[in-house]
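Database export, one record per block. Field names are fixed; values are copied verbatim from the stored entry.
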Amino acid sequence: MKKLACVTALTFGLVACNGAKAPESAADASGTTGSAATAPISAATSAPATPVASFREVTIPSGTTLRLSLDSAVASDTSRVEQPVRATLRSPVSVNGQVVVPAGSEVTGVVTEAEESGRVKGRARIAMRFNSLHASGESYDIRTSGYAQEAAATKKQDATKIAVGAGAGAALGAILGGGSGAAKGAAIGGAGGTGVVLATKGKEVRLGPGAAITTRLTAPLTVRVRT
């Protein structure tokens, strides 16, 4: 009987112990669940997505005028063919009312002709052509019409110099030798005036930074425009 009583008591003791531990396990489970529920959300999952810039292509038609302001200095007597030339757009380029190339965009090219003035004939001339456009972080190859500028003619000024020389010579000849002296003096004076003209070069063409020039696209140009 004593052995049966001990076995019965031991059985009830084990059940009591297991029953006491059950709430503790439940508490632990609930505590774990609560910790997971209250855990902070990762910064990586909460950060907003970075917007991706989008672009569309727009074609600028051939014949579009480019109004430029020179950044480089060029001159008929100092520049050389293939010398680099830089300029910026004085006004934006628009297509269908939308600006597709902003003012201030850089345009580059080269000198294509540089002729200094001659002593007897030949006026000074400077010419250039632009072949590259840099706008909104993009670079484009472009085709443009050439820009050229020629020095003004000096024929009237040359004629005036010769006439003044002849007149002065005639006056001096008249004082020294009468009518025949005047004729000789005019001839001598005219020759002197011609000599001055032949010894004097004509005007040069010089364009400094800020000079306003204009060219045109001779082929369509497709550019990327941010939307």
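Remark 1: The CA atoms of residues 36 and 68 lie 66 Å apart.
Remark 2: Residues 155-201 form one domain.
End of record.
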